[in-house]
Design goal:
heme binding; single chain; four-stranded mixed β-sheet; Cyt_P450_sf; 19 helices; 11 strands; 517 residues; Cytochrome p450; alpha+beta; iron ion binding; globular; heme
Length: 517
């Protein structure tokens, strides 16, 4: 009776709270639908509030772009998972201009000035760090995902492998495998149309396997994909799906439960295979000079790679040097066959520049001016990597393409959208090698916009090798065969999917051996 005259004790407060909890518990047990309604309401309130902040209050609110993309990661994730993000980015840039806000914290660029602003070292000699999707915090990350200091150390261990001298040493092995590639084409051409995309994959993977590990993958010998190729083709889609799921907490906590066991096993096999390949290369008693020669010599030294860095980087070099070259050759061939006048020009240049097939090598192809223009145009109209390699702005923000970008913003130049922008290239969907040869009709093209090997200190280390390999394979193919696109491949590029790299489909071509007379 005196409770109202005194301050409630701790016990009284505890009893009161427990009674309230008990009442709520009884309510919940008796009204599960009401609980679900409350939870749904809370989630809806959170999402609505967050979307409102992203659109109206976020530091990037003044940048152009669709409001739905600014409000949520859902559109961004959807187009990545469907493999159509490269096409959607092109559409958005055509509508909104050279810089578009494509996610709550992402800016996409087609302005050529953004290349240097994003990917080269700033005035303070600091790089913009890679976005989390392309970065690994592990001390044993390879050349792609490593931090700035580790990247420079690892790259320094491999750079001599791509020197002019090293390429001369490796040329006989490359030519030997190209010879086998031509032999296999002759054997299969008499049987009917061939899937030239598959042949390009066989050749480029065998070449890179030989240069990296001292032995090819045997694709041309067995005329079939090595298992590693299938893994490389399948893994990117899974990686993209997992990366997109990580954008949606708390769903990201479920990743380990949602990833199929087979995907995890494939990832482990991929890692173990690369480890085994490196160990076999190290164990060779009289190894030939190759990519690994220079890196192994400095292994586990202060200026060389660790064993794990060696394993990861060797696998990366094989993938980067083969998959992209095979994709480029496929796209190049398709566009040549869709433009007979360009094919005729290139064929005439090749067959008039050499007196015999043996004269075609990695040095002599440098004299083929039209061939170089064809390769450059193929890289523009069908870039081997059509997507975007994102970086993150520094703590103080950065000036990009003449405009300040707030800190911790993901920024990048979209390859496909940049190369198909009418602001950068006239007739962006036409295959016109002459634009690289001074044709006055294309004098206003912004040639600096084309950067398929990236720019800055993290650009592709194998650029010169890629050009030489592609031109040799192309020249040898056209020296030996006349080509005609089969009807089933007339729309080869339509609906192609990309998960960082292209999802390949057969490129059926009729090959007619050229008379040696």
């Amino acid at each position: 009776m005196f409770r109202g005259f005194f301050k409630p004790t701790l016990a009284d407060t505890y009893d009161s709270k427990m009674l309230t909890v008990a009442k709520i518990g009884v309510f919940v047990m008796g009204h599960p639908l009401e609980l679900l309604a409350w939870l749904f309401g809370l989630i809806l309130f959170y999402l609505t509030t967050k979307a409102f902040y992203n659109v109206a209050l976020h530091p990037l609110r003044s940048y152009p772009g669709p409001k739905l993309w600014a409000a949520s990661h859902i559109p961004w994730a959807y187009y990545h998972v469907t493999g159509d993000i490269y096409l959607e980015l092109e559409r958005l840039h055509r509508k909104y201009g050279p810089v578009v806000r494509v996610a709550p914290n992402n800016l996409s660029y087609t302005d050529p000035d953004a290349w240097n602003d994003i990917y080269t070292l700033g005035a303070d000699k600091q790089e913009l760090p890679k976005a989390s999707l392309f970065r690994s915090d592990s001390k044993d990350a390879g050349i792609i995902g490593s931090t700035w200091n580790n990247h420079q150390r690892i790259r320094g261990s491999f750079k001599n492998a791509f020197s002019t001298q090293a390429m001369k040493e490796q040329e006989p092995r490359i030519i030997s495998l190209v010879n086998l590639y031509i032999q296999r084409l002759h054997e299969h051409a008499i049987q009917g149309p061939v899937d030239l995309q598959a042949f390009y994959v066989y050749a480029t993977f065998d070449i890179m396997g030989d240069l990296a590990f001292g032995e090819s993958f045997g694709c041309l010998e067995g005329m079939k994909y090595h298992r590693w190729i299938n893994v490389i083709n399948d893994m990117p889609q899974a990686i993209v799906a997992i990366s997109m799921l990580n954008l949606f907490p708390p769903l990201n906590k479920l990743v380990s439960y949602l990833v199929p066991k087979s995907t995890l096993e494939t990832g482990r096999w991929h890692r173990d295979f690369a480890v085994d390949k490196v160990n076999r290369r190290i164990a060779q008693k009289e190894p030939r000079s190759d990519f690994m020669t220079y890196a192994i010599a400095n292994r586990d030294t202060p200026r060389g790679p660790t064993m794990r860095e060696l394993e990861v980087t060797a696998g990366t070099l094989v993938i980067a040097g083969s998959e992209t070259s095979a994709s480029l050759l496929g796209g190049l061939t398709f566009h040549l066959l869709k433009n007979p006048d360009k094919l005729a020009n290139l064929t005439a240049e090749i067959r008039s520049s050499f007196s015999s097939e043996s004269d075609i090598n990695m040095t002599s192809v440098n004299s083929l001016k039209y061939a170089l223009a064809v390769v450059d145009e193929a890289m523009r109209i069908f870039p081997p990597v059509p997507g975007t390699l994102y970086r993150v702005t520094n703590a103080g923000g950065n000036m990009i393409a003449g405009r300040y970008v707030p800190p911790n913003t993901d920024v990048g130049v979209a390859h496909w959208a940049t190369y198909h922008s009418p602001d950068n290239f006239k007739d962006p969907y036409k295959f016109v090698p002459e634009r690289w040869l001074g044709d006055p009709a294309y004098a206003n093209d912004n040639r600096h916009a084309l950067q398929p090997f990236q720019v800055g200190p993290r650009n592709c280390i194998g650029r010169n090798l890629a050009y030489a390999e592609i031109k040799v394979i192309l020249a040898r193919t056209l020296w030996n065969f006349d080509m005609q696109l089969c009807e089933e491949s007339e729309k080869w590029t339509e609906g192609l999917k990309s998960y960082f790299i292209w999802v390949k489909r057969p490129l059926m071509v009729k090959l007619t051996p050229v008379s040696k007379n």
